[in-house]
Amino acid sequence: MHIPYNVLSPPVWATAAAVSGAALGASLVWARRGLDDRRIPLMGVMGAFIFAAQMVNFPILVIPGISGHLGGGFLLGVLLGTPLGIIVMASVLVIQACYGDGGVEALGANVFVMGILPCLLGGLTRRLWREPRVKWLAEGVSVVGGTATIVAGAAIVVLLLWCSGTIPGNISLDHALAAAMGVHLPIGIVEGVASAGIIRFILRVRPDAVWADSLPFRAGEASA
Amino acid sequence: MTTANRWTLLVGVAVSVLVGGGVSYLASSDPDGLEAVQEQLGVTPAHSGIAPPPTPFEGYRVKGLGDGFGSNAAAGVAGSLLVLGLVLGIGYVLRRGRARPATDPGATSHDP
Are A179 and B40 an interchain contact pair (Cβ–Cβ within 8 Å)? Predict the structure, then answer.
């Protein structure tokens, strides 16, 4: 769901770039407090995996002729926390832009829609996964949350196109929003289910890497 | 580097290579959700003028290798490794910001 070249107006893409640039900068400053050794390889392989997984367009059977692909921002937010998730997703999108996927001028907007928004929601869900007594709740919230990130992302793209004036005047905003969100609902459900499954798997094999931040970061805060 | 980290890298890269280099060849070529919506709404690229920078990986194919399995596989594997390198690079720069006094070359332990 990458915004392509030449559909955003300069004020829109510049604003999006400023917002995303500020969020990415804040994430880097936050992470500069220090990264635990165990988290860095997990960040790297999750980025590599999401790049690969996004190449796999799957048919969404309920709407023939339309495909979807994984977003991955939500699961990054859960597994790495919001700031590190944003850093990894921005890296994926930069390399994808080098592949002609997503406009270079739209990079800020794409980082917002596929990185910042889902990583924020994922980051909010992160603490639920930490409490083993409510595992079913964490899984359920992740399925719904992952779905929501894709549907909300599609709505934001429509708003950006609307502000850019590239949606024809005879189409109402309501109609455009409904069309985009309707198409992205089945894609979002796949995202939600896949996110919950991948989070479960990573938490089973590397819980130390997922939760490695808690102690070192508190110590870093105290000494700062 | 700890054994767990080495395994994470090894398995993670293997899965990414398999998915990006192999499974992605079977991907649906139908427009994705956003492309379909733009088509349906008649979104017109009104703000023309920005051209894609030259790239050897246009459309997830390697320029000069055609449109076959190998071209897709090479582009997919290269992309995954580029992301891996970029993220690891950022990660290790950020790690040094905190841990410089404690990390000697070859040190694998960390504070509990």
Answer: yes
Strand-pair partners of A58: A68
- Quick check: B99 pLDDT over 70? no
- The HSE-up count of residue A127 (CA atoms within 13 Å, CB side) is 3
Query: From the candidates A56, A75, A101, A160, which should be mutated to test the interface with B, based on the most B CB atoms within 10 A?
Result: A56
- Tens digits of residue pLDDT in A94-147: 999 999 999 999 999 999 999 999 999 999 999 899 887 888 999 999 999 999
Whether B108 and B99 have beta carbons less than 8 Å apart is answered as no
Single-letter residue type at B48: S
Q: Is residue A183 part of a domain?
A: yes
Contact A175, A155 (CB under 8 A): no
Residue A222 lies in a domain: no
Contact (CB<8Å) A100/B42: no
CATH code, domain with A68: 1.10.1760.20
Q: Decide if A37 and B95 are in contact by the 8 Å CB cutoff.
A: yes
ipTM of the complex: 0.91
